[in-house]
Amino acid sequence: MRPLVGLAGVIAAILAFSGSAWGAQPFGHSCTLQSGVRFCPTVDSSHRVPSFDGVPLDVDVTLPATGQGPFPTIVMLHGYGGSKTSFESSSPADHYSNNFYARQGYAVVNTTARGFGNSCGGGPGGDHTGTCGQGYIRLADTRYEARDTQYLLGLLADEGVVKPRGIGVTGISYGGGQSMELALLQDKIRKPNGKLEAWESPDGKPMAIRAAYPRWPWSDLADALLPNGRFLDTQVAPFKQSLSPVGVPIQSYLTGLYALGFATGYYCGGAPASSPCMNPEADITANYGYIQAGQPLSAAGQTALESVYLHNDAYSLAFLKDHSRPAPLLIQNGWTDDLFPPSQALRIYNLVRDRYGDHFPVSLQFGDLGHSRGTNKAATNLYLSDQGARFFADHLKGGPGAAPAAGRVTAFTQTCPSTTPDGGPLQAPSWDAIHWAQFTFGNLATKTFTSAGGDPSVAQAFDPIAGTTDSCKTIPITSEPNVATYQRTVTKSFTMVGLPTVTATIAATGQYGQIDARLWDISPNDDTQRLITRGVYSLKTNQSGKITFQLHGNGYRFEAGHTVQLELLGRDAPYYQAGNFPVSVDVSKLTVSLPTRG
To answer: Which of 103, 234, 403, 596 is the most buried (most CB within 10 A)?
Structure first.
């Protein structure tokens, strides 16, 4: 009789598994038990979920193997050119996937952003007719991509799958930027007219984000893509700081990202090519053209840049009327990320701590990671992902997850060769406390460089797109022409952690120039030099006087006997776009300070 009893139990389990015991099926999609979780995908185009404006979205939901909703929920948002599958896995091994989080008791939502994949993407050959006609990429516009995510969550809340006010968001790069936006929106949606309204589900349930873990994000997209060098980590960035003056485009990244979106996504007016885009705010091709033309930026280009600042990032949300207190944040940026460097995290960190006090729950993670030239070592990623999991447990499930304390910074240092484990983790109660001393050098004398730049082969060698993806790359010591250099020999080894600060008096002749900065570690052992960090300062016409700007930063140990060298030049193409006009810069009374741990 035992075999029959066992068989009856199996049959009963199967019936329960496929019946009402499962509760609501997300978006009406069937679920199957696989790899220890319930997976409920959008299986084809006919099952896509219409968003608030009718654009069909490709979205999968993963549930814990057992239990009824509503569940605490985590949304995972992919990078540019990616899709819902970017963070889907059959294994929890990397501690950052739908499988990992569902095993921790969360409902996990993986969605393809509008304009990509089967959410109306597919490149020039994709189907962009019917309801997909308006489904083009909005470049993470808070009125569209962010609202898509909010609308999907509202539907799931009404179905009893999602806890309406128990939601976490995370993502990498493009998804990290959107995670930051959703954290700043918190319990608000943004309407197409730009105004904020209370976020409610279609059935009227109050909704809110309760935790956000943006990885490799931007907080100010205008500053990230056209940095002007005005942000300082010692200050709260004022509203519209990144728009005046217009910054220097990170040319190689802009070219690569535009091409990626064109090939894999759907740009307004991009398919068919003869069909013009009738929405200037979403005309990525036109905006790319304005930037490619260089300075002076046309009136249309300036309007487009301001629109990006106002609609496509998190920072400007904090200055809107009726803005809510942001959700708790754990922000991760890479020292060696030449697309979204640490300033993108620090801008938000400084603002919320200044506005809401030092007890506001915002914490930081830094390391040799992110976009190129980040190394992204597995052990570092695992440590930081586990910290992210504890952060979500505290804020979405009531802990005890041992999330980082408010203001806390966790940093790993870059080590070379790239096969060696990162240094750290270094811990500090605040950004100011992660470093407490300075390694300073400079020169009072006047030095001159021009927009002709130094050795173009050096610039090419360290371009993060076409030159190298290796943060540890070295070249033979190279004496470049037409640059201003400043050196100091290291007599006692030290670890730099933070953003080097350059202060100088300048006299520039010409318009729309730039000061490009590179910090090198020069080794006497093998006569090589390694790029440690870089930065840029956008010049006004004939600008003169005292200036202060910072480089991207790093966590890096300089060994005794090595030489630290700051190099200033007027051209660092192809990474930064070269100017259209000849410019000469005299620099005097220069000091560079490296933040150190003793």
So the answer is: 403
- Write down the pLDDT at residue 14: 41
Which DSSP string do the residues of 5-23 spell out, in sequence order? HHHHHHHHHHHHHHSGGG-
Straight-line distance from the first to the last Cα atom of the chain, in angstroms, rounded to the nearest whole number: 75
Contacts of 73 (CB under 8 A, 6+ apart): 106, 107, 108, 109, 153, 156, 161, 162, 163, 166, 167, 168, 396
The pLDDT of residue 598? 82
Residue 65 is classified by DSSP as S
For residue 242, what is the DSSP state?
A: G
**Taking each helix axis from N to C terminus, what angle separates 299-311 and 284-292, rounded to the nearest 10 degrees?**
120
Q: Is domain 437-596 annotated with CATH 2.30.110.10?
A: no
Q: Which CATH architecture has domain 23-240?
A: 3-Layer(aba) Sandwich (3.40)
Instruction: Work out the mean pLDDT of the chain and round it to a whole number.
Output: 94
- Please choose, from the candidates 148, 64, 87, 81, the residue with its C-alpha nearest in 3D space to the C-alpha of residue 116: 81
Distance CA(170)–CA(104), nearest Å, equals: 15
Q: Does 574 sit behind a cis peptide bond, omega within 30 degrees of 0 on the bond before it? A: yes
Binned at pLDDT 50, 70 and 90, residue 4 comes out as very low
Domain map of the chain by residue range?
23-240, 437-596
Residue pair 128/271 in contact by the 8 Å Cβ criterion: yes
Q: How far is CA 359 from CA 182, 212, 328, 454, 520, in A?
A: 21, 17, 11, 47, 37
pLDDT number for residue 19: 36
Q: Which tens digits make up the pLDDT trace of 183-235?
A: 999 999 999 999 999 999 999 999 999 999 999 999 999 999 999 999 999 99
Alpha carbons 576 and 574: distance in angstroms, whole number: 6
Tell me how far apart the alpha carbons of residues 169 and 199 are, in angstroms, rounded to a whole number.
Answer: 15
Distance CA 536, CA 226 (A): 10
Chain segment 70-87, per-residue pLDDT in tens = 999 999 999 999 999 999
- d(C-alpha 26, C-alpha 436), whole Å: 51
- Closest CA relative to residue 320, chosen from 195, 432, 215, 499: 195
